[in-house]
């Protein structure tokens, strides 16, 4: 499908720039009457098929020449996959207003401060309404694995959209702040033309276990542990940290926070009164290191097996303060993000080898998901009764499952917009229709550079990573075309056998001799000849496919 | 710890060559009175830290000069991680006898036939006893995710060892062949000096769900599916396939087997009466392709996301016979082996995108594990009451958890041999002690070659895979040392920016000029200079760490 037609008058356009087809880099653009509203601007973390990539950004190109039209970026909550790309967007235009709850704005401001950007931000409250240019936005409390998450209803003369952000419906959340289902019901009664809802757990039947049910499990662990306790979790999961602190307090242990993001985020959460730290519970890591093992809990980052994180360093035995050993208990109170298994189990094994008891979600109920499974999604669909539905935030398997749920609740199948990043959906009279497609590439961040790494380059990396390369160099006389040096063959990542290339040198020489007899002197042709010759030899001899790098130099 | 002392007279030595510290390449060597017995000889599948590796073998070197002393290789069951390295061992000495159950021997013989090896094999029956040279072996039925699995008790004058192989204790297995707990009890009453037991699920509390409980789930799926049904599973999981066939039969569908190993193994299973195929249930894939969607079930390989498998090809839309689309149901009735998540979810997403409903173990109970969890392991420990205990078949987290279970049942902590591959354990008077260590490397198979890929080479691959390489070539006069060609810079996997290296060329030239002024003409020194110069530039400019390949050619 090609580029979309100009937007008809009185219609609302929705362009998901990320979050549909992969979990991450969530970003949706709304257009009405020439003006744009953005909801979320997150990053996607690369998987093993994207080697060497640090982050993946949404492709901003469809709006890059229209940033003056952007009324605001609404941030539903403070997770990286919703706010992580904000710095990259604001690089283009630093004064786009950011709108979100208190905690969300505090997190994004802290992130921007590292890059010396001070954003224009607007803090909104649960139930509040803001007119953001052409868009009237109403904000609803939702429960998620980070405090202060929000859904947003966007009203325009062309219709009303409800975008849930990420959410679940724990009915007994730690902070008592439940997902505003009543508000959604009221909105549904007014009429919702398009519902965009979190699909992450749409495949999973049933309902979420309450965060509170983790507490007795933690208490059990804390009651029986005799040595040090180290708990790792996401650095933004304030309620999980709260429970660890409460359990530590109850069992007479102090808590030391480890890891830069853990310290920073819990400081913010405490300042905003989202985290309640009993009296003298917190100690510094230096003090903790000198305390007796049974007196201390370390609350750490590194739950995803990151080698440079606090826990990763402990597992490798090179943490500055903490050496894990016999008698220690490590709790990974976190999800295991698909793709991180090798890293996470590697950390668990290294800690186990050192003598620690490691408790993780396969072993005990020390984690609950932050996303609504099918049972809760049905509640939402039935409360809102939208005209049209667009599943968002998920891989294809999640979007497809969510679409089926919507149809089951009565959304007409042809009013379910099962779309992917870059599809352009126009909402006219409550009906969502795909009208075109805009460019949508994965924008890779690798080190300091953004966008110079693309798919073909990743494919080179995959070939190099799987088989290494063999470089064959020949020097020819630029006038006569005769070989005056080489062939020399060298390789990296191919074989540790020092004599591996002895047999191929005469083969290359013979091929060059034949070429010379045939009067071939063109360096490019000779290069192709060397590539073919070495490629055929290595395939026959080894059944491997390293990259062949022929190099014909003229002197 | 160094090499072990000579084995004392009357002692039994155990050397695990694989399976302790990683799940796979299971292999244990027993030595008594100068003679050796091997239990299992499997492969380990590489993870993402071992790029380009096809298989990992046990390190045979400690027994390679003693193969004449090997009385037999006992194979506990037919999974690749227990039999996959047999061809590589028999390469060294093809007439080592193989001992195992009927199905196990049939599978290993089929594997060896592909390499034109006809082994000396001995089929043993449940409850049978064989004198294998110095070792009296008694075989016990165990229940696992493949038929005909066995545990083996090894009796020598130095004591009795019970090696469970892989097992679980489904009390209602499809074939009625339960784990011979009564036999283990009898053996325990006689006295077991060392128990070696499967640790894979030692972290998991409780008991296994019966294989039979999958059937109603399959029936539900088969009852409601309107289009084609494609079920993927391990090609050796005869009972899972049996249930799919039974459900297909009940719902009036025919079954076509797809995938070379699926067809081969089910043929063997049928011949051995381990698989009961109702009347005219089976159809060829060609016939199936012309049948109506609601009449057919495809039973396929590819449950681990292998791109070249039948299911992998269907997902990519390039299977010769089958195009998956709207209305089709795909069931992944299998585990998800850690490390395969990206591949498996990739397949699920591609099938979902094509319109299929994909049911996998996160969504419905279509898989149960083949390994005993903690509850069952306790039963075994309490029945056998061994003097000493060695947890086997597991990563460190599993071995550690299993060791704790053993201690809880009364095995003295100092008689638990928590060891890893290559540790040498002597059993004297019922007490197992580590007495030394033998070489134990991962032996990597990559294409046709075995052993020319090692850790340092994998580290080169990882660097290349993450960041590509930058090659900088300079040609110098071999007499004067003067630069006569270059510098030229080329790269793979580094940047798609065609002008990326424009800024570094003058930097290299300047460095070479300074070297020339200083009288440096040694090619090796110039090479180091180029490497440093380019490396510093790329780090400052990009914050990346590609491999730098300097190349100073003399003509």
TrEMBL record, chains A, B:
PROSITE patterns: UPF0036. Ca(2+) binds at residues 52, 54, 446. Its EC number is 3.1.-.-. The gene is rnj. Zn(2+) 1 binds at residues 77, 81-82, 144, 166, 393. Zn(2+) 2 binds at residue 79. It comes from Phytomonospora endophytica. It holds the Pfam family RNase_J_b_CASP. SUPFAM superfamilies: Metallo-hydrolase/oxidoreductase. Substrate binds at residues 235-237, 367-371. This is Ribonuclease J.
């Amino acid at each position: 499908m090609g580029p979309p037609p100009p937007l008809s008058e009185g219609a609302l356009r929705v362009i998901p720039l990320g979050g549909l087809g992969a979990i991450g880099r969530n970003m949706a653009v709304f257009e009405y009457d020439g003006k744009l509203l953005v909801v979320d601007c997150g990053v996607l973390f690369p998987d093993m098929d994207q080697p060497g990539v640090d982050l993946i950004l949404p492709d901003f190109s469809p709006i890059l020449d229209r940033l003056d039209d952007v009324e605001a970026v609404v941030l539903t909550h403070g997770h990286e996959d919703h706010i992580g790309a904000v710095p990259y967007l604001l690089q283009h235009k630093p004064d786009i207003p950011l709108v979100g709850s208190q905690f969300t704005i505090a997190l994004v401001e802290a992130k921007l401060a590292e890059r010396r950007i001070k954003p224009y931000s607007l803090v909104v409250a649960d139930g509040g309404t803001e007119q953001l240019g052409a868009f009237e936005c109403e904000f609803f409390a939702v429960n998620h694995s980070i405090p202060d998450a929000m859904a947003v209803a966007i009203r325009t003369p062309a219709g009303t959209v409800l975008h849930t952000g990420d959410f679940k419906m724990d009915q007994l959340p730690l902070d008592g702040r439940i997902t505003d289902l009543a508000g959604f019901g009221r909105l549904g009664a007014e009429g919702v033309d398009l519902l965009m809802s979190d699909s992450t757990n749409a495949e999973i039947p049933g309902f979420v276990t309450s965060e509170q049910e983790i507490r007795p499990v933690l208490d059990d662990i804390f009651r029986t542990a005799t040595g040090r306790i180290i708990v790792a979790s996401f650095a933004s999961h304030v309620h999980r940290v709260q429970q660890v602190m409460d359990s530590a307090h109850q069992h007479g242990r102090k808590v030391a926070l480890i890891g830069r993001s853990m310290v920073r985020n819990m400081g913010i959460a405490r300042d905003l009164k989202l985290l309640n730290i009993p009296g003298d519970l917190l100690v510094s890591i230096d003090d903790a290191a000198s305390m007796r093992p049974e007196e201390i809990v370390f609350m750490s980052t590194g739950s995803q097996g990151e080698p440079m994180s606090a826990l990763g360093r402990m597992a490798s035995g090179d943490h500055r303060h903490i050496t894990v050993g016999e008698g220690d208990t490590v709790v990974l109170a976190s999800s295991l993000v698909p793709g991180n298994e090798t890293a996470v189990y590697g950390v668990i094994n290294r800690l186990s080898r050192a003598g620690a008891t490691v408790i993780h979600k396969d072993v005990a109920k020390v984690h609950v998901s932050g996303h609504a499974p099918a049972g809760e999604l049905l509640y939402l669909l039935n409360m809102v009764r939208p005209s049209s539905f667009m599943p968002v935030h998920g891989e294809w398997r999640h979007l497809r499952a969510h679409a089926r749920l919507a149809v089951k609740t009565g959304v007409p199948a042809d009013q379910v917009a099962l779309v992917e990043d870059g599809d352009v959906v126009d909402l006219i009279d409550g009906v969502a229709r795909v009208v075109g497609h805009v460019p949508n590439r994965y924008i890779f961040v690798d080190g300091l550079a953004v966008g110079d790494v693309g798919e073909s380059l990743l494919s080179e990396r995959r070939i190099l990573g799987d088989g290494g390369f063999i470089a064959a160099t020949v020097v020819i006389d630029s006038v006569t075309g005769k070989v005056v040096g080489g062939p020399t063959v060298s390789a990296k990542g191919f074989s540790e056998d020092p004599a591996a290339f002895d047999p191929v040198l005469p083969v290359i020489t013979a091929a060059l001799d034949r070429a010379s007899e045939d009067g071939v002197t063109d360096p490019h042709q000779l290069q192709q000849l060397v590539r073919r010759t070495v490629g055929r030899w290595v395939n026959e001899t080894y059944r491997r496919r390293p990259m062949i790098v022929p190099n014909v130099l003229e002197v």
